[in-house]
Amino acid sequence: MLRKNILIFLKNISGGIMNVKEAGSISRTGLQLGDHAPRPPEPQDQDQIISNWKGDLSSPLVSIKCNAYNHAGYIRDAINSFLMQRTNFPFEVIIHDDASADGTDKIISEYMERYPFIIRGVLQKENQYSQGKRPGNFTAHLVRGKYIALCEGDDYWLDENKLQIQADFLESNPGFAVCGHDACVIENGIVVRETKLRDNQKRDFSAMELQRGVYVLTLSAMFVNKLGEAPPEHSQVVNGDDFFLSRLGEFGGSKYLPEIIPAVYRRHEGGVWSLVDDRKRKAHSINTQYWIMQYYSRKGNSRLATYFASKAAANLFSSLPSFSFRELVFLFVQLLKMFFIRKFSFFKKRLKK
């Protein structure tokens, strides 16, 4: 079947649900600025989805991992985009809700009841992130897939063939550890950025480049399930994407798949990362590079440890001209807090073991 291009949408004031299969004239390069973002269709029932699967239905090839927190206004789009996937293999959806206060957990429970064979959830009664615990700590043991696909509860996919394309590629190309694609950025349902990737990021990366740090959109990523338990250093960073991508480089390179319709990254007030200011982003970035350096140092990889040490230093000094004296003081205070507080926490955990 010829694959249809992504929709052109009428700019209706309702911004209602549009079926991804209804229109086929928009360019595969994505939506235009000011467009209403398309939303996934209402999903088929469980039996219809499973009817196309082959092989052992209880052994999913792909596990979709989704983290949610106060995403009641968005989570349906995310889950519907998972359930619209057309595959010839079994997949599963694992959702972690971190004690949402807006009813997100009730929506997830509704889907779990309707799709008990496909969707499993971990619904926390007490927020874990505020205690320094990551969602992955609670869902890792549930993952059965050979490959893992990621999408946060406030983002969603647009291509119904995304999983099939990515899984087929990884199955046929064992030299790659991860593959991904582009996404647009929306605010209040309106496209504010046509692409989230720069042109120089829309390419393949070698295993070494992946280890040294490249940008692969996590909401687009599918990767081999080979990482195992997260190292203790990983818990010391705020945004762990760079860390896990670097570790994936041990198993192969990264493939960019432009044929997949761009996904949707949602920017909103409740977003954990999208609205973090530049100063905090810079401090978090330096902190992440520091802990990746510590990880590779502990693993005996002096080449990568040295690389990330120099990268953290260069990142710090390159930012100096753009900050006022007051901002520099703020930055250094933030870095000192992160380095010393997290270092203490790290060694405390190591001593307990």
Automatic annotation (TrEMBL):
SUPFAM superfamilies xref list: Nucleotide-diphospho-sugar transferases (SSF53448)
Concerning InterPro entries, the annotation shows: Glyco_trans_2-like, Nucleotide-diphossugar_trans
Top-level taxon of the source organism: Bacteria
GO molecular-function term, one example from the UniProt record: hexosyltransferase activity
Q: Which Pfam families match?
A: Glycos_transf_2
Which part of the chain is the Glycosyltransferase 2-like domain? 68-213
Keywords of the record: Transferase
Q: Does the keyword Zinc apply?
A: no
Q: By its UniProt entry, which Gene3D superfamilies does this protein fall under?
A: Spore Coat Polysaccharide Biosynthesis Protein SpsA, Chain A
What protein name does the entry list? Answer: Glycosyl transferase family 2
The organism is Halomonas salipaludis
